Amino acid sequence: MLLPKPLISPTAARCAKSLVSLSPGRSAWALVIILLSCCTAASAEVHTLTLREALDFAARQNPDVLLSRLDAQRAEQGIRVAKDPFSPKVFGGSGLAWTSGYPNTIDGNAPSIFEAKTNMSLFNRPASYQVAEARENARGAQMDAQAKSDEVAYRTAIQFLDVLEMAKQVEVLSQQVPSLTKVVETMKARVEEGSELGVESKRAAVNLASARQRLEAATADLEYAETLLAVTIGYPASDRVQAVQPETVAGPEVKSEEECVDLALKQSRQLQRFQSTVLAKELEIRAQNAQRLPQVGLVAQYALFGSYNYQNYFTKFQANNGQLGVSITVPLLVGSAAKALADQAATDIAKLRLQMNDTRNQIAVNTRRTYQQWKKAEGARNIAQMQLELAREDLSVLIAQMTEGRAPLSRVEQARVAENERWIQLYAAEIQLQRARLAVLRETGTLVAALRAEPDSHQP
Quick one: pLDDT at residue 357? Predict the structure, then answer.
């Protein structure tokens, strides 16, 4: 039977060659290091994602999002803890004991072979308010989880745009290098012919070296941006994420700066979280003030007695015994703790209201600023578009002049480089405009809905 031929990745093949090339006298540590590096390189993956796919993966895998959801789950479990006094609890055991004299046990109950007890609260105002407080805290924890999800979505979108911008720069610079290499060769030939000065050849070489250096730097920045995006999405640091399908995020549907501010104040999760915390503190005050109210509970007990403990003291014996009733507790003096805790909660509420006012003012200021930045970015994009069109026209004129022998090749190539730079600037302006839109959407609380909507493709 023929076995299938094993598949070996290029990385593993290079590692195998490295192992073979080692001499027998080399240390074994070199083998271990190479094997570890090969395993690490083999586990690294490159993920090609659209913006929507990146957002979906980040919502499922980002550590910050997962931690906030665990906190929300813990808060939900706190509701069950607060409901515990209203849940029946049954305890079973034995009160069997050797007695001397009157039948009695250490805890005051009658000796029994088996006994069971149960109790639960029927009316307990402090515990009821604590249940309501736990529900409000759970609702606030859900708000925190949603706010963290929105923050991660914004960070993912920004880093996605960074990857797109870096990739475009690498693409444009990669196109410059072959063109500048051809210019260097042409200039060398013209200098040797005597039709150009030697300084022109040096200038062409400097331009080529500068383009290569910029390409290397842009490539390194691209790798870093792809790795950072992978970590934000939830992949290991050895992976990279390549962004595809350049997408334009639709701007917020607001007609004026004031409308944008009003929407931001209405949708702010920070203000909603403050309001939820204030409600929880008010319920805490009610719970402390309710310590003076009576409390009613259900109690029940069953005991199985043995006759040998009672035959010398009672004329009538009954083996099965049970009690069912209601316990009423009326607080007479509750101490100073309840009043002090209520005052502390009231102080916390006053502090929260001050923080709410400060947050409201800060949201208004930030929203106005992001709205202005959005409009400025639109103007900058339009200027970049006009500059690109002018550079393209200049290049067309120089090409026509070179054909007629009225313009040297060096000027044409310089114009071509200038056109490429204008392309980079236009793309950077477009990305900056999208960043400004994301900032406004973040402030108005409509970021996730806009990002998950059907995007419009746009290629400057």
Answer: 94
Confidence of residue 453 (pLDDT cuts 50, 70, 90): low
Tens-digit pLDDT profile for residues 194-235: 766 677 778 778 888 888 898 899 899 999 999 999 999 999
Instruction: Give the number of domains in the chain.
Output: 1
Q: Position of tokens 């593993």?
A: 12
3-state secondary structure of 344: helix
Torsion of the alpha carbons at 205, 209, 210 and 211, rounded to the nearest 10: 100
Query: In the beta sheet, which residues pair with residue 457?
Result: 247
| Structural domain contains residue 141 | no
DSSP strand pairing (46-49 vs 240-243):
parallel
Buried b (16+ CB within 10 A) or exposed e, 155-185: bbbbbbbbbbbbbbbbebbeebeeebeebbe
396, part of any domain: yes
Joined together, the tokens standing for residue 275 give 């309001």
Is 95 inside a domain boundary? no
d(Cα 219, Cα 171) in Å, to the nearest integer?
10
Overall average pLDDT of the 389-401 stretch: 86
Instruction: Tell me the CB-side half-sphere exposure of residue 348, using CA atoms within 13 A.
Output: 18
Calculate the alpha carbon distances from 119 to 105, 277, 437 in Å. Answer: 21, 33, 59
Q: Which of 120, 140, 131, 154 is nearest to 68 (CA)?
A: 140
Evaluate if residue 73 carries a pLDDT over 90.
yes
Helix (H) or strand (E) run with residue 48 in it: strand 46-49
Residue range(s) defining the domain that contains residue 393: 258-268+352-449
Neighbour tally for 327: CB within 10 Å: 12
Element containing residue 424 per DSSP (H, E): helix 409-444
Give the bridge partners for 459, in sequence order: none
Q: Residue 105's CB: how many other CB atoms inside 10 A?
A: 14
The H or E element containing residue 457 is strand 456-457
pLDDT per residue over 325-382, tens digit each? Answer: 888 888 888 888 889 999 999 999 999 999 999 999 999 999 999 899 989 988 998 9
- CB-side exposure of 56: number of CA atoms within 13 Å? 7
Mean pLDDT of the chain: 81
* Residues ≥6 apart with Cβ < 8 Å to 248: 430, 434, 455, 456, 457, 458
